[in-house]
Recover the amino acids of this structure.
């Protein structure tokens, strides 16, 4: 291939590549630079270069560690529960029965509801201590009312997150179920394998790719969760339910501590890159890149 | 039996949405009552209040940010994914890796500089700033999705087009586009969902003039106390475009959400 031909082939790629480089990479270079500054917008003397001291401060900041832990809890908890529920729903939907189309439509709707709307819906309509739907329900069986978002902020946010992400997992698993060949299932039945046995040794291995993909893509989005935390608990009480995106937002836009927030951003990026490199290997195996 | 279980589970899972819709047709006194009211005379008052309360400009901003960014994403992603799928060059997988890695870059890690740069360029509270950011947010996903659709086009089709002497633009426009049209629709739908629902950028970078629907919803909550029924009506209106689009295009959704990894 001549170099002119090579460029002709690359040309259609360039607008997208250049746009992405400018919009995503330049701000990140600035973030790196800010992270080396002592820069608080509330202090009039401006910014000065302080090297790595912002990074040192972060690691001695217990709130940062708490927020990091919450990020892990929200991501792992949401992806795990959403995937389990998603598998159950997908198995129930993978049969023909009256109203199947309607049921599927009902089940995917939470994913389509605007996250801001569903956060408000959960915190105000459902989890509200005085007129929330959930307290009325548990009241029917004699459990006294609970102030969900202030007593159990992490559980409350997880409920809203799992509700929102279950349809995503369900759709992926369902397409995996529908891709499996009916012959193999019949063969298993002829061999006398029961439902559970067939599920564990035939269906589950076949679903593996789809489950991996759901976990990876779900995690990419859930780790960035902001809406639910901002609207349901504002990271509270105190900082009990803040995750990293919310805590960085607080430091940057409420504390005006640009240097600290930037350093936290850089740490999050490095952590994400470590996890993502492992994850992408799996994705690439799933995607089977042809070169 | 299993069918009954499925229906019951689905209705329980859907009930928060149902509750939101029900609440939006109540008067405020019935909306915030304990125990909850299930039977009531429905009213459209809340919808009237939302629509007359200046929701129009927020919907217009959201429509511009979503519509224009989706068009830009498609315009950039189609040639790019064509280049990485049908006519790949060396390092193609590096390019693909780069695109998707930008999607893994946490937004909070770049929001400060974006805020500062936008301030210096005097484009804070400007809907076109959101257009640029939403384009960069959705572009990597679109490239991956479109690539998977292009990979399915049989090689003979392209050879035939080349034999007929069709150039790049003509091949892309006349031959390939009709074949990947369903994929293009799925890609656009995903871009619309993510742009319409986006809140973080909109919260930080917009104020009154260019604020979008999610910001409007939040303002409903904080500005004048809590009007539960009215907030529910606003939530229904805000979610409706994406919910309807998603209902219509359920089949394409899977393909889109998995970035084309599974069919």
């Amino acid at each position: 291939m001549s170099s002119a031909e090579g460029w002709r082939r690359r040309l259609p790629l360039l607008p997208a590549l250049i746009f992405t480089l400018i919009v995503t990479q330049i701000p990140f270079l600035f973030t790196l630079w800010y992270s080396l500054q002592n820069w608080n917008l509330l202090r009039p003397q401006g910014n000065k270069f302080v090297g790595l001291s912002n990074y040192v401060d972060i690691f001695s900041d217990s709130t940062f560690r708490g927020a990091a832990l919450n990020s892990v809890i929200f991501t792992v908890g949401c992806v795990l529960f959403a995937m389990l529920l998603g598998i159950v729903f997908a198995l129930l939907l993978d049969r023909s029965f009256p109203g199947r189309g309607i049921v599927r439509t009902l089940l995917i709707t939470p994913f389509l509801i605007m996250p801001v709307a569903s956060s408000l819906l959960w915190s105000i309509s459902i989890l509200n201590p005085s007129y929330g739907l959930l307290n009325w329900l548990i009241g029917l069986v004699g459990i006294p009312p609970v102030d969900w978002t202030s007593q159990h902020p992490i559980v409350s946010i997880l409920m809203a997150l799992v509700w929102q992400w279950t349809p995503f997992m369900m759709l992926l698993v369902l397409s995996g179920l529908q891709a499996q060949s009916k012959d193999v299932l019949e063969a298993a039945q002829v061999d006398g394998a029961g439902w559970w046995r067939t599920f564990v040794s035939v269906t589950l291995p076949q679903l593996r790719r789809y489950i991996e993909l759901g976990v990876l893509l779900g995690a990419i989005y859930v780790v960035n969760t902001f809406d639910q935390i901002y609207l349901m608990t504002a990271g509270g009480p105190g900082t009990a339910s803040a995750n990293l995106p919310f805590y960085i937002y607080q430091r940057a836009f409420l504390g005006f501590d640009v240097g600290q927030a930037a350093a936290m951003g850089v740490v999050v990026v490095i952590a994400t890159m470590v996890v993502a490199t492992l994850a992408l290997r799996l994705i690439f195996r799933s995607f089977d890149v042809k070169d | 039996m299993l069918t009954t279980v499925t229906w019951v589970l689905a209705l329980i899972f859907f009930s928060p949405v149902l509750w939101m819709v029900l609440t939006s047709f109540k008067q405020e006194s019935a909306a915030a009552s304990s125990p909850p009211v299930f039977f009531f005379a429905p009213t459209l008052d809340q919808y009237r209040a939302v629509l007359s309360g200046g929701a129009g400009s927020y919907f217009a901003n959201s429509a511009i940010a979503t519509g224009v960014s989706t068009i830009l994403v498609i315009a950039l992603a189609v040639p790019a994914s064509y280049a990485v799928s049908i006519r790949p060059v060396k390092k193609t997988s590096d390019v693909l890796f780069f695109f998707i890695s930008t999607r893994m870059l946490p937004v909070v890690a770049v929001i400060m500089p974006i805020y500062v740069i936008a301030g210096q360029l005097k484009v804070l509270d400007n809907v076109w700033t959101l257009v640029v950011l939403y384009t960069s947010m959705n572009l990597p996903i679109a490239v991956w999705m479109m690539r998977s659709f292009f990979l399915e086009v049989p090689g003979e089709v392209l050879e035939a087009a080349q034999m007929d002497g069709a150039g790049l633009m003509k091949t892309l426009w006349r031959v390939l586009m009709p074949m990947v049209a369903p994929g293009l629709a799925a890609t656009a739908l995903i871009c619309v969902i993510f742009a319409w629902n986006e809140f973080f950028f909109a919260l930080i970078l917009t104020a009154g003039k260019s604020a979008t629907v999610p910001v409007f919803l939040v303002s409903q909550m904080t500005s004048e106390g809590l009007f539960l029924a009215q907030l529910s009506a606003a939530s229904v209106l805000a979610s409706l475009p994406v919910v309807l689009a998603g209902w219509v295009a359920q089949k394409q959704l899977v393909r889109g959400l998995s970035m084309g990894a599974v069919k």
Q: What stands out?
A: Chain B has a mean pLDDT of 89.
